[in-house]
Design a protein that fits this description.
Elements lengths: L2 H12 L3 H16 L22 H48 L16 H21 L1 H10 L3 H7 L5 H12 L3 H9 L2 H9 L5 H19 L9
Length: 234
């Protein structure tokens, strides 16, 4: 199937279901695409106001305190970011489940978004392994990182579609599925460039429709690689 055929499949699946798809997409985006910000400010030194210069010991103390604060903030942000990433990976798998039901004409419902918590362990392990491999890929060079990210692009769909599949099996299956299909997935994603530009021009309002449209097309792409009932990759 071509990118235009996947988009057509997505539109047909969304017909009559735009309401629940938009609502689910908005909540999924809020939970997956959100973030936590940290900010702090240091009080202005009164030394200058008093006409006094800080001593060397005071400078060293300030540097030490600043270093401790920076490391603490980074550590807290990293830990919270990791927890958030694991939580969002479960929601992402749930959103894949919703879109697969949409494409399969299997009564998609908002509750599907939270249906994958029963598989939290496998999903989190898959997320951590995927993050590790992608990080190594990007550290080696940008292109290997991009290739790795495309290799494992189908992992959330596989986990949502196959309850008994483990994290390592999901990564293996995705890599096999994407062999020879990475360019096709890129073309499908790039085919939405016009919609993305309209979203920017509408100050993000267009994403209300673009998010479900894109994800339904991606589910169609996955379903082409893994038809219902297939055991080719298991």
């Amino acid at each position: 199937m071509t990118a235009s055929e996947h988009r057509m499949t997505a539109r047909e699946a969304l017909s009559g279901r735009w309401g629940v798809s938009i609502g689910t997409g908005l909540v999924a985006t809020a939970l997956i695409g959100g973030g936590t910000g940290f900010g702090f400010s240091l009080p202005t030194s009164s030394a200058e106001a008093e006409g006094m210069a800080p001593t060397n010991e005071e400078v060293l103390m300030i540097i030490l305190i600043a270093a401790i604060v920076a490391v603490s903030v980074f550590t807290i942000a990293y830990v919270l970011g990791s927890i958030y990433g694991m939580f969002s990976s479960i929601i992402q798998a749930g959103y894949c489940s919703f879109n697969l039901k949409l494409i399969d004409d299997d009564e998609p419902a908002f509750k599907n978004l939270f249906s994958q918590f029963r598989k939290a362990k496998s999903i989190i392990i898959a997320y951590l392994l995927r993050f590790l491999f992608e990080t190594i890929g990007y550290m080696l060079f940008i292109v290997p990182g991009i290739i790795v990210s495309y290799n494992y692009a189908m992992v959330p769909f596989i986990l949502a579609d196959n309850p008994s599949v483990s994290a390592k099996e999901a990564l293996r299956m995705s890599k096999e599925m994407m062999y020879g299909n990475r360019w096709r997935l890129f073309c499908l994603q790039f085919s939405f460039i016009g919609w993305a530009l309209l979203t920017v021009l509408s100050l993000g309002v267009g994403s209300i429709w673009l998010t479900p449209y894109q994800n339904a097309a991606l589910a169609s792409f996955y379903r082409e690689l893994a038809p219902i009932g297939t055991e080719e990759f298991v």
